[in-house]
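Before a computer can learn anything about folding, someone has to put a protein's shape into writing. The three-dimensional part falls to structure tokens, numbers that each stand for a local backbone shape. The protein below has been through that process, and both of its lines are reproduced in full.
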Amino acid sequence: QVQLQESGPGLVKPSQTLSLTCTVSGVSITTNYYYWNWIRQSPGKGLEWMGAIAYSDSAYYSPPLKNRTSISRDTSKNQFTLHLTSVTPEDTGVYYCVGQQEIQFDGWGQGTQVTVSS
């Protein structure tokens, strides 16, 4: 069973870069047909898919966030990391890392609260 855990700062200043890391256990992030997603929920809004990195190291991004988002991985630590640049208070929310096997979500992290404020 795949397990995921987010880590990173809870408070980020406007214009800075937010970096969140997801540590995966139970399956290697290079396992065929697995995709590793970042999803967030801002106050009063629904879930928003931000992007994903595939088992093959290909990355995919939500068009509205594409210019500010990158996702990388460290296979030696079985981790993947979200980088979101030029954050604003609108980027405040709960950020989740989510494992996906083919078309099915396979596990969610517990979520981490991120607040953008000076």
The chain is about 0% helix and 55% strand.
